[in-house]
Amino acid sequence: MDGKFAVSKSPLDTEMSVLLHDLLGIVKVAVISGGSCLQFKKQFFSNLPHDGRLNSLSLLPVYGTHFYRYNCELGKIYSEDFNGVEKKKIIDSLRKALADVSFKIGTY
Questions:
Q1: CATH code: domain of residue 45
Q2: Is position 33 within any domain?
Q3: Which of 49, 53, 80, 92 is the most buried (most CB within 10 A)?
Q4: Which helix (H) or strand (E) holds 78?
Q5: Which of 6-15, 22-31, 62-71, 96-105: highest mean pLDDT?
Q6: At residue 28, does pLDDT exceed 90?
């Protein structure tokens, strides 16, 4: 979303809101972002007209690991969240891989 629809961490400007609203009247649109759903609400919905065209909008925050569809309000379809054990396993694996190649965090 950042740099495509709006300046980073900023709401849609009026021109982009109108263009996106017009596009939603023609096709279904899915927007993927690394930001959270809360960030979508602040950045994306603040200047977008709230009407029936939003039913053609799907949002995939957190790099597509969550899926929301608008149907009179933003509703979660799914969320791929890691539990504590899964997070620890992933982080430990990344640390091991970095150690195996002698990569030190903060160096390039």
A1: 3.40.50.1000
A2: yes
A3: 53
A4: strand 74-79
A5: 22-31
A6: yes
The CA-atom distances, in angstroms, between 33 and each of 23, 38, 50, 67, 101 are 19, 12, 20, 11, 31
Contacts with 32 (C-beta within 8 Å, 6 or more apart), sequence order: 1, 60, 61, 63, 64
- Mean pLDDT on 46-72: 82
Phi, psi of 102, deg, nearest 5: 55, 35
For residue 75, name the pLDDT band (cuts at 50, 70, 90). Answer: low
Report how far residue 106's alpha carbon sits from residue 99's, in angstroms, rounded to the nearest whole number: 13
What is d(CA 102, CA 81) in angstroms, rounded to the nearest whole number? 30
End-to-end CA distance of the chain: 28
Domain with 25, as residue range(s), is 14-80
What are the structure tokens assigned to 24, written together? 């939603």
> How far does CA 94 lie from the centroid of its chain?
24
- Tell whether 39 is covered by a domain: yes
The verdict on residue 48 lying in a domain is: yes
8 lies in some domain? no
